[in-house]
Amino acid sequence: MNLVLKITCPDQPGVVAELSSRLLELKCNILESSQFFQPSAEAGAAKDEGTFFMRVVISTPEDLNSEKVDESLKAFASQFGANLSCNELGCKVPTILMVSKFDHCLMDILYRVQTDTLPLDIVAVVSNHANSRPDVERLGIPYHLLPVNAGNKREQEEKLEEIIDRTGAGLIVLARYMQILSDEFSSRHFGKIINIHHSFLPAFKGAMPYKRAWERGVKAIGATAHYVTPDLDEGPIIEQHAEKVTHAESATELVRRGRDIEARALSRALRLHAEGRVFIDGNRTVVFEH
């Protein structure tokens, strides 16, 4: 079995050596290792103070699963003050997709999942519109229609929570879901909600970004995949894609091209998250792409 270890801890001597020693005792083989030191941003901090991030892929003996490895490394985590997770490599993440009317990101994700090029298990689709129901149900995926208005947002979020609990979803994807989640919901599921924003954040936040970008005569457009926080469009950024444009392209053409960019950026972010390559560091991320 191949497993992915994610480790975050205060930077200090001996972390890599001790982890390697303990993995050797478990007769595990290290297949891949990525490391990064982030210096502390606090005023007056020494140059060698900061946070250490590490992603390790290991192969294990047949009788050793992720639970046993996690249990065996508890002493290591305690010794170095580390946050440590251990998951099976390639394990598909139970995922809920949320969408409104524009379904280009939704359909792109469904295609990649159906062709085994994106390691997600789509356990449900939730929408405030019925537009995508036929395409989703044709694939045998449950479709939950939860219309939202000013008076029922809390009630619909409670229904969404029930769906999360019932399906065991570990990831929620806002695939152009054009409703704002409550601060409570966003905080409760921090690190498990990924949004695609149709703009190259932090510019042009909010509504109609391509129109406003066109009005400003931009020479590049883009899309940003980020984790959702109570601060609208301010969450840690996972992935950004951009393309050059010219004065000759209309606002409508920017929208068309933008949708392609959004789908690519979101699918890339989902893969990075599912493969355990993203570490949240305050309002930033550390992403081990390879």
Automatic annotation (TrEMBL):
SUPFAM superfamilies: ACT-like, Formyltransferase. The keyword Hydrolase applies. This is Formyltetrahydrofolate deformylase. It holds the Pfam family ACT_6. The active site is at D233. It comes from Cohaesibacter gelatinilyticus. InterPro entries: ACT-like_dom_sf, ACT_dom, Formyl-FH4-Hydrolase_C, Formyl_transf_N, Formyl_transf_N_sf, PurU, PurU_ACT. It comes from the Bacteria. GO terms for molecular function: formyltetrahydrofolate deformylase activity. Catalyzes the hydrolysis of 10-formyltetrahydrofolate (formyl-FH4) to formate and tetrahydrofolate (FH4).
